[in-house]
Protein: Phage tail assembly protein
Amino acid sequence: MTEASTHIAASVRDGQEAPGAESGWSIDVEARQADFARLRKSGSETDTTAAGPVHQNAPAAEVVVWPRIEATYDPTPPLVQIPLSAPFEVAGVRVAVIELRHPAFSDVEDALRGDISELELHARMAGVSTDALRFLRWVDAELVTVCARHIAPALRTA
Structure:
């Protein structure tokens, strides 16, 4: 600390007017100490009010939540068609082939953020529910997973 900053710190600590106050710079030591005391509270006495000035007449911040918009893509041939060794029926729909397409950018973002699992990403790529992928026999699940991981960008970071 320089000699000047030591003098300013000592002046402020002692409650004296700091040098430079004539230019509008000053510290209300009592208010500062009250803020620190409030912040030191612990346990059941936790105070959630913010330290510092509170603007009573300030309008509350308005939070805008945008609805998730779904896109409908033009029909395109799948990149991979995987015929299942053990076809099955789920919710009245027969599943005999899993067709994989490139994932949407938003789906990759969701997966990277952790909002959806890798299984959900693969389900979106296949256009089926996660339940349909969960009902796959292991040999089919392994094949679908390998193909989907090959098509989708790497989700793991080093």
In short: Strands lie at 80-90, 93-100. Residues 86 and 135 are 10 Å apart (CA to CA).
